[in-house]
């Protein structure tokens, strides 16, 4: 018959007798738990930031690059040979069932002028489908249309960084800018997106119709050719089949035989980014694991103090045994004492850890996220530490002979 | 059937190579309702005998039956149960928990018996009241006089309804006046509640309260006689 509430009261009182000692013993657990919380918060914050950046790139993305051709035995890098055409992009949308949208990209760097301001930025020739593929809404104005693409209209969508640098506080929509001295009407402004996982500013860009880019800005010796085709699969589950369908279609369109190597490369961007996210999660867990070593050290501290406590209180144990305390009454008393120490330490550690991570993010500018699962983990772990390291001293106490314990001075 | 039945009990302590016979072939019966004093010089084995009677220690040889139960065949936890329900201890040094209040000390045996908190409090209060300690229930042992502490200890011994009180030098730390008060209480318990009291002492004026005197010398009982009171 074990009376838990009374036993808890007994344990609590025993801890209050040696306040300084109890506090110092808890310190190990406090440091361990707060370190675990802070490390996990830093790690989770990092991986969440990466996840945000991934979703800012657009979801379920494939990228088709030209090249990877063999010329005279030397393999060229992907993108070195202009083999993709606007026709390829159109065919991908029409003929691949797993694909929802595709947009060609013909890009370059150009000097842009408005009034007295000028700015060098990346100019992307594409189709209206690009905004869908990149999941990129407009902040103002409207997009260019398929008709604008057909007629090679001199219209442009500006990224937020370009707007900031050229216009300042002025309203850009409807104004005329000059890209490589060619006048373009600003149709719309793209919503701010922030950085890519690689740290590139996605807002430092101008979108124009792909045909205009070919004719007016980046005319190449291969008319109708584009540098990249961005493809969006219908869902994450369709990414694999979309990749295969695009591959087969383009091989067919490019008349590539069975044994020949493709003259293009399909890259699964989303998978790549997810791998990056995954690795940052592993990093977070690793940091947490290292921090939990200090939790272990704290647990050993608890065991040490509990062993001292058992020796000091041998006579008390003897009195309790004489009066009728059974083996588990004694064990439970000391286990609960260790548990109380470790749980109070754990709760204090959680509070310090949560505050610590918010200080860390405001001082060092790291994104930190304290997840409820990390709090539960730390709390549960400190409880386990208490029971585990409390058991041996409790076991030792329960094995004392009542008569020896009673006579102990 | 006697309440306590000790049959040819021997207790041997091993101190290195030397074997010390603390009890040598002791047999004794104690009946329900007796008030017995065990006397003898230091080292005569009277405390060892008391520890065996209290199920705190086991004999090396021989049998000890309490209410017909063979104590030798019981486990640690079964012995703890016997001490809890059948035996109340009163020690020379009081042996109260120093950090617990009087009432918490008295509640302790009921705590280990698994009684609900409300019952514990009620019965502990009643026991303290019967010892004349009303109003002292929230005092710590160090806030009480020796006599009061010993009365708390007696309340603790009684509270679980134990039929036997084992008192090991209960007045050893008390002055003469307080000693006779405590002895008066034990005597009252014996006569009014027919609780069996077994007392260890080396003071003959304390032993004089009892109705039977058992003398130990060198681990043997040398005399066992009824005391006729004038």
The unreliable regions of chain B are none
Contiguous helical run count of chain A: 13
Number of domains of chain B: 1
User: Can you tell me the number of structural domains of chain A?
Assistant: 2
Summarize the amount of helix of chain A as a percent range.
Answer: 55-70%
Number of strands of chain A: 14
Specify the CATH architecture of chain B: 3-Layer(aba) Sandwich
The helix content of chain B is 25-40%
How many DSSP E strands of chain B?
10
- Can you list the strand order of the major beta sheet of chain A? 5-6-11-8-10-9
Largest interface: chains, residues each: A-B, 25 and 26 residues
Shape of chain B: globular
Principal-axis shape of chain A equals: elongated
Structural class assignment of chain B: alpha/beta
The top-level CATH class of chain B is Alpha Beta
Number of helices of chain B: 7
Main β-sheet description of chain A: 6 strands, mixed, barrel
> Spatial order of the strands in the main sheet of chain B?
6-7-8-3-9-10
What is the typical, i.e. mean, pLDDT of chain B?
A: 92
Using the CA coordinates, give the radius of gyration of chain A. 33 Å
In short:
The complex is a heterodimer of chains A (409) and B (230). Chain A has 409 residues and is an alpha+beta fold.
Structure description:
With 409 residues, chain A is of the alpha+beta class. Chain A is 56% helix and 19% strand. Chain A is built from 13 helices and 14 strands. Chain A starts with a helix and ends with a helix. Helices cover 34% and strands 28% of the residues of chain B. Chain B has a single domain, classed as Rossmann fold (3-Layer(aba) Sandwich). With 230 residues, chain B is an alpha/beta fold. Chain B starts with a strand and ends with a strand. At the A-B interface, α1, α10 and α13 of A face α2 and α3 of B.
